[in-house]
Amino acid sequence: MCGRASDAIDPTGYGPYEFSHIRIPWRKLYNISPGQEIRIARRVDGAPDHRYVRWGLVPFFAKAEPDQLPVWKFPTFNARSEELEQKASFRHTLKRQRCLVLINGFYEWTGEKGHKTPHYVFLPDYRPFALAGLWDRWTSKDGALELVSCTVLTRAAGDFVRALHSREPVILPEDRYDAWLDEGNANWQRVLKGGDEPPLQEYVVSGYLNRRGAEGPECILEERTRGN
After folding, report:
1. Contact 35/55 with Cβ under 8 angstroms?
2. CA–CA gap between residue 205 and residue 211 (Å, rounded)
3. What is the mean pLDDT of the chain?
4. Most buried residue, 54, 167, 207, 210, by most Cβ within 10 Å?
5. Contact predicate 94/134, CB 8 Å
6. CATH of domain 5-225
7. Which of 12, 45, 41 lies closest to 26, judged by CA?
8. What is the C-alpha to C-alpha distance for residues 92 and 82, in angstroms, rounded to an integer?
9. Which residues contact 4 (CB under 8 A, 6 or more apart)?
C-alpha cells in the first residue's frame, strides 16, 4: 500500500538515471496524496523525460462530459503487481507506458479506525528513491484537453513493512531502473521481484499529517521530538 508520499529532498546529483538531470522545476513536497501531482521519470521516444502527473491513473478510455476532464471513480493510485495483466486499466500501460515514481518517503498507518498512528518510512539520509509505476494519457475527442496520470505498483510486504501493512510499494534498486523502463523487456516480473530488501527505516509522526492541507517539514517530524 502507498497512499501518501513525500518528495522533500533535492534530487539533483542522486542516482545514475534521472535524479542528476532534472528537466523540470522541482517542488519540495512533504505530503502528496492521490489526486495531487507527483513526479515521474519515463522515456519518450527513447529520451529521458521528467514531469509532474496526477497520482491516480485515469485510463485513456475513460469517458467524460464535453469540455470536462474524466472523473475516474476506481481507486487506481496503487496497482497490485501480481494482477497487472488482468486489469484493463493497467494491461496496455504495462506494455508501453512504464515509469519511475520519484519520492523520498511514504506513510503508513497502524492501529484501529479512529485511533490510527501515522508512520513515516524512508531510506537512510532521507535520500530519494524510485517506485515502479505505470502512466497513461487521456485526451478529449477534440484534442483540447489532456490528463497524464500514474499509478504506483505494490507487492506483498517484506519483513520490514509487514509490521505496518500487508502491502508495500515496489522500490526499485538503481541498477533496475533501465530494465523497468525498457518496455521491450518482457521479463518485467523478474525486475519487480527478488533482490535484497532496501534498508528502510521508520518512525512515528503526529496526527498533524491528517489535517486538511498539512504540508511542510512538520509532516515528517518524529513524534518523540515534538515539544523538546
Report:
1. yes
2. 13
3. 89
4. 54
5. yes
6. 3.90.1680.10
7. 12
8. 15
9. 31, 32, 33, 106, 107, 209
Residues 170, 89 contacting (CB under 8 angstroms) = no
Q: What is the reported pTM?
A: 0.92
Whole-number Å distance between alpha carbons of 152 and 135: 9
Enumerate the domain spans of the chain. Answer: 5-225
Task: Concatenate the DSSP letters of all residues of 56-109 into one string.
Answer: S---TT----TTS-----S--SEEEGGGGGG-HHHHHHHHH-EEEEEESEEEEE
Question: Are residues 154 and 80 in contact, defined by beta-carbon separation less than 8 angstroms?
Answer: yes
Q: Which residue type sits at 182?
A: D
As given in the structure block, the three cell numbers for residue 195 are: 533482490
478529449: which residue's cell? 140
pLDDT at 196 over 90: no
CB neighbours (10 Å) of residue 134? 27
Cα–Cα distance between 1 and 116 in angstroms, integer? 15
* pLDDT band of 160, cuts 50, 70, 90: very high
